[in-house]
Amino acid sequence: MTNNRIDQIIDDHHGEASSLIQVLLDIQSEDHWLSKEALSRVSEKLDVPLRRIQHIATFYKAFSLVPKGRHEVHICMGTACHVRGAGRVLEKVEDATGIKPGETDLDLKFSLETVNCLGCCALGPVMEINGTTHGRLSAADTAKVIENYE
């Protein structure tokens, strides 16, 4: 992300340090991660110490300091999803993408995470991709869903 784009995002939030978290969320939304360069630019423009920004970026799980894929896949492993076959869904996603939970593929196409609950237990097993929920998944359904994002 360019400094001009970061500056524009900061300006959209009126250059206020109180908007730091939203600025970081907006940068990550476009870039899929927070680079050291981006954090430095935010620090400079908002006049917030870099250490403070790094503390916030590492405290909240929503932020990533390593590149993420364009498609963020979350597999629910909560009890309701687990008993309905979330393990098979996870295996199918691992096979289709070649990555394990916590990883991003080399093409920066997919990042995979497991979560404890996505809040839609009645739809289990559930997979969320880029905020879109896919429920009542079989292994075959899972493969088709992943193919739609390739």
What descriptive keywords fit this protein?
150 residues; alpha+beta; Glutaredoxin; 2 domains; 4-stranded mixed β-sheet; 7 helices; 47% helix; 12% strand; elongated
Characterise the protein shown here.
By secondary structure, the chain is α+β, with helices and mostly antiparallel strands. It folds into 2 domains: 57 residues, no CATH class; 79 residues, Glutaredoxin, CATH 3.40.30.10. The chain is built from 7 helices and 4 strands; from the N terminus they run ααααβααβββα. It has a 4-stranded mixed β-sheet, with helices on one face. The protein starts with a helix and ends with a helix.
Cross-sheet strand order for the largest sheet: 2-1-3-4
Q: Show unreliable segments.
A: none
CATH superfamily of the largest domain: Glutaredoxin
Q: How many distinct folded domains?
A: 2
Percent strand equals: 5-15%
CATH structural class of the largest domain: Alpha Beta
* Shape call: elongated
Please describe the biggest sheet, giving its number of strands, its sense, and whether it closes into a barrel: 4 strands, mixed
Helix-strand topology string:
HHHHEHHEEEH
| Mean pLDDT reading | 95
Broad structural category:
alpha+beta
> What fraction, in percent, of the residue positions are helical?
40-55%
What's the total helix number? 7
Number of strands: 4
Give the termini distance in whole angstroms: 23 Å
| CATH-defined architecture of the largest domain | 3-Layer(aba) Sandwich
Could you tell me the CATH topology label of the largest domain.
Glutaredoxin
What does the radius of gyration come to?
Answer: 18 Å
